Amino acid sequence: MTSGKASGYLTENLGLGALLTTAAFFCVALVGTLAKVSGQFTSTGVLLLLQNAICLVFLLPVAVKGGWRSLRTDKIGLHLLRAGSGTACWYALFFAIERIPLANATLLTYSAPLWMPLIAWAVTRQRVAAATWIGAGLGFAGVMLVLQPQGHGFSIGELSALAGALTLAVAMMTVRWLGATEPVTRILLYYFGLSTLLSIPIAIADWAPVPASAWPWLIGLGFAQLFSQILIAVAYRYASAEKLGPFIYTVIVFTAVIDWIVWDHAPTLSTYLGMVLVIGGGVMAMRARARVPAQRT
Fold it and tell me: Which stretches make up the EamA domain (predicted)?
């Protein structure tokens, strides 16, 4: 690994990175929960816009305190990719959780680490370890157990959650690429600023009024999203996305517990088995991916 001063990364600390990632995805579980509640008051498009705008409002004073010069970047393309993929992911997840149980929507969306090694291969054309393919196969078998398409096909909510998984994989990898040169505050400001702009036409097309009773939930949603993004960006400065990828699965456990307690959606046996396969396959794929560079040196 190159030095932190040269690359923007800090000295690798997988334990701290794992702790930060777990805390981040607890916040993500809260985002899904609060979005499901807030979705009863307004539309998905408005929910997406307000989530990003609230985060931007709270972050902007902190970001500009360092001066506008500190916000200059030569990575605008990566920032746009990050914002576009992140916006698409959150819209897909919010759309899904209004139509299928929260735990199922989260499990399908956060199968993203299964896609990350494949996307990395498509971009870099580096060899993919056999264990990566095996792990991905196990994970996708788990996805099919949760979907159970026999007899009824895929619902629009399930398809939306899977689309969210693909865009989330791109977003996670982009955060790591940006972390090589960009400070956390700059990454977050560009993300929330660009995502707010991208969300405006979606909200206009999907407009619905926001009652006063919804604002406490929406503000809580914004704070949960802001903290999740801060923690993720900091975590990826301590370890790579491939190494921290398995810890993303804590969000599935957190969400399943919340879904059970709040909405009385007890996981079925097939959901339990699917969770085991998705988590186990994802961990295998991520670890195999992380070992490939070491084998080549």
Answer: 16-147, 156-284
